[in-house]
Write a structure and sequence with these properties.
Elements (H helix, E strand, L loop, with lengths): L2 H18 L7 H8 L9 H13 L4 E2 L6 E2 L1
Antiparallel strand pairs: 1-2
Helix pairs in contact: 1-3, 2-3
Length: 72
């Protein structure tokens, strides 16, 4: 699977998780270990961080200013 496909799937997984759990918040580690447990592609913390960064740039998720915690 291409890296762009993996990042796309991770991004979709994050958005899907947040659509079901709109009040959820978590670190990249938590996203990787708990939010993406049902994803088909294997992923690692670096791939999840890249996907999170892309979602942040597009304004689809937000980062708490005082911590590396992400939410809708």
């Amino acid at each position: 699977m291409k890296m762009t496909d993996i990042h796309s799937e991770i991004q979709s997984g994050i958005i899907n998780y947040l659509s079901v759990h709109p009040d959820a918040s978590g670190s990249v580690q938590r996203i990787c270990e708990q939010w993406l447990t049902n994803e088909k592609c294997a992923h690692n913390i670096f791939q999840v961080q890249t996907a999170v960064n892309s979602l942040l740039k597009r304004g689809e998720i937000h980062k708490h200013s005082d911590a590396d915690i992400y939410t809708l």
